[in-house]
Amino acid sequence: MRILVIDTATQMLSLSLFDEAVCIAHHHERVGRGHAERLLPAIASFPGGGRADQVAVDVGPGSFTGVRIGLAAARALAFAWECEIAGYSALSVIATAVARDRSPAGDYPVAITGGHGELFWQMFSPTGTALSDLKSTPIATLANILNDEEIYGTGAQALVDARGTGTAVDLYPDSSLFPLLSSEAASLPVEPLYGREADAQPMTIPVPS
User: Could you give the C-alpha distances from 82 to 49, 56, 124, 200, in angstroms and in order?
Assistant: First the structure.
């Protein structure tokens, strides 16, 4: 069974193709806002054009545009290939990297860059299991909430700068870690996980009395 993993939720374009849990192709490049131009050519360069029996995609939180690009591509490929599709969280895959590479002694926060001066964040156990709900909090407010020495993720440095103390470990989601996610974390609904309310709200039209 082959699984194609698509991650465009942050500035990183991260793609992996697995054959029976063995990674046979990996593309991990910081592209900023260039996901749309590079995504499909990168997949096409994989063995067999990246064709897989399942597509997994990072549903967020992260860049509004990046999340939607990844979802659109994943849905289109799954439809064309008539295969299964599943979602996973950007924060969970970063937490998995922390659990694997740093063997934390206790619980730890993962924070990634959000919009409007906020960070998306969540607490995880040493094994990478989520311990809290996903939240979006202004950096100044979060600086007074989290007192953990080490902060992980793309928003770590901004939070450490705001606090004036701690160690920031800058980590981006890496699609090659998908097989290490728990079955629950690797089977989220294939819908955008924005982590905050939309800036624009539908207009309320008065009902004539």
Answer: 15, 14, 35, 35
Cis peptide, bond prior to residue 61, ω within 30 of zero:
yes
Contacts of the segment 133-138: beta carbons below 8 A, 24+ positions apart: 134/61, 134/89, 134/91, 134/193, 134/195, 135/195, 136/61, 136/195, 136/196
Q: Using a cut of 0.70, tell me whether the model's pTM lies above it.
A: yes
Q: What are the pLDDT digits (tens) for 75-85?
A: 999 999 999 99
According to the model, what pLDDT value does residue 196 have?
Answer: 62
Tell me the average confidence (pLDDT) per consecutive run of 10 residues in the chain, 209 residues long: 97 97 96 92 98 98 95 98 98 97 95 94 97 96 96 98 97 98 96 69 48
At residue 156, φ and ψ (nearest 5 deg) are -60, -45
Q: Of 125, 132, 122, which Cα lies nearest the Cα of 60?
A: 122
The CB density around residue 74, as the number of other CB atoms within 10 Å, is 23
